[in-house]
Specification:
Blueprint: E1 2-6, H1 10-22, E2 26-30, H2 33-42, E3 47-50, H3 59-68, E4 75-79, H4 84-93, E5 97-100, H5 105-119, E6 127-129, E7 132-135, E8 140-143, E9 146-147, H6 152-162, H7 171-178, H8 189-201, E10 207-209, E11 213-215
Parallel strand pairs: 1-2, 1-3, 3-4, 4-5
Antiparallel strand pairs: 6-7, 7-8, 8-9, 10-11
Helix pairs in contact: 2-3, 6-8
C-alpha cells in the first residue's frame, strides 16, 4: 500500500517513514500542506497520515480541500492538538481517525490497518489461498496452519497479489506499492521478493506471466 506522510517535524517524519517502510508500506513524505495538496492531485494513495500544524497550508484547510474535491482517501490525523474541540474540528473537516502525539508506534500501525481495511470494505481482512493464510490485522502468515515469517516487502507483494487473484500485476505496479519517492530500487528487487515467497510458501503460489508480470491463480 502507498501512503502519504504529511509531517514538518524532521525527526518525527524520519522515524515514522522508517517504521512504515519496515512494515512494508510505500511512503511519500512531504513537509507542508501545499506539497501534500500537489501530491494528492498527482497520485492515488491508500491513506494520508496528516499533521495539522503545517507551514504554507494548514492541515485542516488541506483536509477540507481534499473532501471538497470528493476525494475519499482515508485520512488519519496525527497531531499534538489534544483538546476536544480540536479533535471535533478534525473529524468534522473529514478526518477518518485521530491519534494524539506522542503516540505509540504499534497503535499507529493498528489504526492504519483498521482504516485501510474499512476503506476496502473488508470486515475480516483475511486472505486464504491454496493452504496459505494472510491476516493483515494480526500480521500473521501461515502455510497449512504453520507460521511463516515474511519480510515487510514480501508481505506487501503477497498481499497485493492475493487481493486480485487471477489478475496479473506488472513489476512496475508492484514497485509502486512498495517504494516511495527517492527510494533506490534495484532492477531485480521484485524478482528477489517473489523468489523468497516461493521458497517460503511453495513454488506454485505465484506464477510468472512471461513478459507481463506476476499473478496468484484463482482458486
Amino acid at each position: 500500500m502507498r501512503l502519504l506522510l504529511v509531517e514538518d517535524d524532521t525527526m518525527i517524519g524520519q522515524a515514522v517513514q522508517g517504521l512504515l517502510r519496515g512494515d512494508g508500506y510505500a511512503v511519500d513524505w512531504v513537509v507542508d500542506g501545499l506539497q501534500a495538496d500537489t501530491a494528492l492531485l498527482a497520485h492515488e494513495y491508500d491513506l494520508v497520515l496528516l499533521d495539522l500544524g503545517l507551514p504554507r497550508l494548514d492541515g485542516l484547510q488541506l483536509l477540507r480541500q481534499l473532501r471538497a474535491r470528493k476525494d475519499a482517501t482515508p485520512v488519519l490525523v496525527a497531531t499534538a492538538r489534544d483538546a476536544v474541540k480540536d479533535r471535533v474540528a478534525g473529524l468534522d473537516a473529514g478526518a477518518d481517525d485521530y491519534i494524539i502525539k506522542p503516540y505509540d508506534m504499534d497503535e499507529l500501525l493498528a489504526r492504519i490497518r483498521a482504516l485501510t481495511r474499512r476503506a476496502a470494505g473488508r470486515m475480516e481482512a483475511v486472505y486464504e489461498h491454496a493452504g496459505v493464510m494472510l491476516n493483515p490485522r494480526t500480521r500473521e502468515a501461515t502455510v497449512q496452519g504453520q507460521p511463516v515469517l515474511l519480510s515487510g516487502r514480501e508481505w506487501a507483494v503477497l498481499e497485493a497479489l492475493l487481493q486480485r487473484p487471477g489478475s496479473t500485476l506488472s513489476r512496475q505496479q508492484l514497485e509502486d506499492k512498495l517504494y516511495g519517492w527517492g527510494d533506490e530500487v534495484s532492477s531485480n528487487a521484485i524478482e528477489v521478493y517473489i523468489h523468497g515467497l516461493r521458497k517460503k510458501l511453495g513454488a506454485a503460489l505465484v506464477l510468472n506471466v512471461r513478459g507481463v508480470g506476476y499473478m496468484v491463480p484463482k482458486p
